[in-house]
């Protein structure tokens, strides 16, 4: 199978470069986890 993806999404290195990019990356990951946990908690509280 041959995939052809003509998009700039995969051109940039996905890893943060430098301290500033790393701090933004960490903050966004923490926010994602917090929002996910709130969604899970809300779902479980309505499922009872």
Notable characteristics:
48 residues, mainly alpha, 0% strand
Task: Give a nutshell description of this structure.
By secondary structure, the chain is mainly α.
Structural class, judged by helices and strands?
mainly alpha
- Order of helical and strand elements: H
Largest sheet: none
Helix content: 55-70%
Question: Into which percentage range does the β-strand content fall?
Answer: under 5%
Radius of gyration: 17 Å
How many strand elements?
0
Unreliable segments of 5+ consecutive residues: none
Distance between the termini: 46 Å
- Per the principal axes of the C-alpha atoms, what is the gross shape? flat
- Count of individual helical segments: 1
What's the average pLDDT?
84
Account of the protein in words:
- With 48 residues, the protein is mainly alpha-helical.
- It has a domain at 17-46.
- The chain contains one helix and no strands.
- The longest helix is centred in the middle third of the chain and has 29 residues, at 18-46.
- It is flat and about 45 Å long.
- The termini are far apart.
